Amino acid sequence: MTVQEVLGNIDAMQLAVDDASHADRITVKHLVEIHDRLMTKAPNAHVAGRIRADQNWIGGNDYNPCGADFVPPPPEMVDEGLTDLCEAIAGDEFSPLVQAALIHAQFETIHPFEDGNGRTGRALIHVVLRRRGIAKSYVPPISVVLANDRDRYIHGLTDFRHDRVEAWIEHFAVAAAQSAALAATYLEAVTRLMDSWRDKVAGGAAPRADAAAWAVIDALPAHPVITLPTATAATGRAKSSVNQAIEQLAACGVLEPLSTSKRNRSWEAVGLLDLLEELEAGRMPGR
């Protein structure tokens, strides 16, 4: 996966979670919109936002479900299953973490789309946690941990489908704990990187304490690849000041231009994409 694909996935996940989390009530339409958002730039984007009309299956061969690892419900049962799922998302009889575990596993069991069920189901984890007030302003990397230990993940879903629900919840809870440790380590690594950027700037002709350069550095963790319009919007500073700040940060080695073009220029925050790639791979940064 390229850096741009990683960033695209992160942006799509954030937007999908934001939209669904602020809805008064989750509907099947929201689930379809999440899928559409996450699949729009995928190689098979033609399936984005389309509930399957055919029987699908996991494993086996491409021609029939004989030998498949799992056969989801037939297409005529998908709408009813998704409607029940939306009701479950609205509930609060379980703890938020247990609810997220059950919602995710049930969604993957319904398997309502031709492709992209995994990423959509993982987005629902974050929707539940945000709606329950557990993670109001960020996306914890539980989905990263699940996706990067595929064998255990599939085994956990199999437990759920064979009524070993406690085993699945235990697996999910372990992934949540691992994601918390991963997120904390990642944030520490980003903080150290930002300190190194500030040291580079201070080592040259250091700008004033209120200069736009410092504001751009503060904005970089959310914008690993940044443009002048993005930096201007993120900092709330004048375009001319931000342009000067970007040039200064590039001269100090904080930003690296991604092209030589004078139009539609963009810069990469040096070192940050490496950390993001490690996070996406489920590795502790620097280890």
Instruction: Identify the overall geometry.
Output: elongated
Overall residue-averaged pLDDT value: 89
Biggest β-sheet, characterized? 3 strands, antiparallel
Q: Tell me the number of helical segments per DSSP (H or I, 4 or more residues long).
A: 12
Structural overview:
- The structure is a single chain.
- This protein folds into two domains: 3-139, Fido-like domain (Fic-like fold, Orthogonal Bundle); 182-280, Arc Repressor Mutant, subunit A.
- The chain contains twelve helices and three strands.
- It is 59% helix and 3% strand.
- The protein has helices at 3-21, 28-39, 78-90, 96-110, 117-131, 142-147, 150-161, 165-202, 212-219, 228-235, 239-252, 272-280; strands at 225-227, 255-257, 266-269.
- With 287 residues, the protein is mainly α.
- Strands 1-3-2 form a three-stranded antiparallel sheet.
- 32% of the residues are buried.
- It is elongated and about 65 Å long.
- A hairpin with an 8-residue loop joins strand 2 (255-257) and strand 3 (266-269).
Layout of secondary structure:
Layout lengths: L2 H19 L6 H12 L38 H13 L5 H15 L6 H15 L10 H6 L2 H12 L3 H38 L9 H8 L5 E3 H8 L3 H14 L2 E3 L8 E4 L2 H9 L7
Antiparallel strand pairs: 1-3, 2-3
Helix pairs in contact: 1-2, 1-5, 2-5, 3-4, 4-5, 4-8, 7-8, 8-9, 8-12, 9-11, 10-11
Could you give a short description of this structure?
This protein has 287 residues and is mainly alpha-helical. It has helices spanning 3-21, 28-39, 78-90, 96-110, 117-131, 142-147, 150-161, 165-202, 212-219, 228-235, 239-252, 272-280; strands at 225-227, 255-257, 266-269.
